[in-house]
Write a structure and sequence with these properties.
InterPro entries: Transp_IS110-like_N (IPR002525), Transpos_IS110 (IPR047650), Transposase_20 (IPR003346). The chain is α/β, with parallel strands linked by helices. 56% of the residues lie in helices and 12% in strands.
């Protein structure tokens, strides 16, 4: 049990530091980032709790490097604990109060490698959204002029070339210029996605822990990165069991129990819906392949049996659940995945 707890509320230009010792708040002061870094160097090792936010991983890494026990805590929990109006001082105090709750769950931090992988993934997702939005906009605007074009990105770009070269379609010079710019933007967005895909694949090759996840059924480069980011941190906030990780990601049924009665519900909506949907999409691709042929491994036999009883969608969610648990065991125990073949 730490005698001193430091609650830190991070902002872009100022950092609020609340020091709690001997059941009393010793100080609650504002510092600049440079002053806080100097304080980390000169202060004795203490428990420092940061509210999880955009800069919390960086400062957690710096605090750990200086010998402190640094942890992250949920901003939602801090908000629920805060008693008075939202100010930096009250937030820093609420961080301390939240950390003192019994059996409080801290959030695991990300390493620099994980942060970089996550940045590549998010840039790729943004490029895909930009590409798809441009494509839909171009198709819709041309349809208003009774010009029907294909939905595929590559075919659409080729069709625009034909439209721009057609002198008999009565399109104005200004509209042709605007359409040409949109075509260039779409082409650039398509190239961006390809570059991000290449960055992802090369990054995986540089991360052995991430690379070995590719051996799991339904796990491609994107899901390998997803699982490595979500599970690949042996930190204080890491899940104790694989089922805890599955529940957090949202591939287990929701539970509502009261009065000794246990009620298991459906797979509900959760905050990290993108990760869950990508895992289930990967699992569904496996389901579609397994139903077309005989089972080769014990997992495929289990999956085919589940498909017959509950259908493709339920089987895909169950496989995604198993994927998360398998990945958790591989990353925490340093094991390799090898499918168990059926006896001949």
């Amino acid at each position: 049990m730490h005698k001193t707890i430091v609650g830190v509320d991070l902002a872009k230009n100022v950092i609020q530091v609340c020091i709690y010792r001997n059941k009393k708040v010793q100080s609650n002061t504002e510092m600049t980032p440079d002053e806080f870094l100097s304080w980390l160097v000169t202060s004795k090792a203490v428990l420092i709790v940061f509210e999880a936010c955009g800069m919390s991983n960086y400062w957690k890494q710096r605090a750990t490097d200086k010998g402190h026990d640094a942890r992250l805590i949920s901003a939602k929990l801090v908000s629920a604990v805060r008693q008075n109006q939202k100010t930096d001082k009250n937030d820093a105090l609420a961080i301390v109060q939240a950390s003192l709750l019994p059996e409080v769950r801290f959030i695991f931090g990300k390493s620099v490698k994980q942060q970089q992988l996550q940045s590549i993934k998010r840039l790729r997702e943004l490029a895909i959204k930009h590409r798809d939005a441009l494509k839909k906009q171009i198709v819709a605007l041309l349809l208003e002029l009774n010009i029907r074009v294909p939905n595929g990105s590559a075919r659409l770009i080729n069709k625009i070339d034909y439209i721009l070269e057609d002198a008999e379609n009565e399109l104005s010079i200004e509209f042709r210029k605007a359409l040409h710019v949109a075509q260039q933007q779409l082409n650039a967005a398509m190239k961006s996605v390809l570059i991000y895909d290449d960055c992802s694949e090369k990054s995986i090759q540089a991360h052995p822990e991430c690379k070995k996840l590719l051996k799991i059924e339904g796990v491609g480069p994107i899901n390998a990165i997803n699982l490595y980011i979500a599970l690949g941190c042996a930190d204080l906030g890491t899940f104790n069991k694989g089922k805890d990780a599955s529940a957090c990601i949202g591939v287990t049924p929701a539970q509502h129990s009261s009065g000794g009665k246990v009620k298991i519900g459906t797979i509900g909506k959760i905050k990290n819906s993108t990760l869950r949907s990508q895992l289930i999409s990967g699992a569904m691709s496996v389901v579609k392949q397994v139903v077309k042929r005989e089972a080769r491994t014990k997992k495929e036999a289990w999956l085919k049996s589940l498909i017959e009883r509950r259908g493709n969608k339920c089987a895909a969610v169950a496989l995604a659940n198993k994927t998360v648990r398998t990945a958790f065991a591989m990353l925490t125990q340093g094991t390799e995945y090898k499918a168990e073949l059926l006896a001949a």
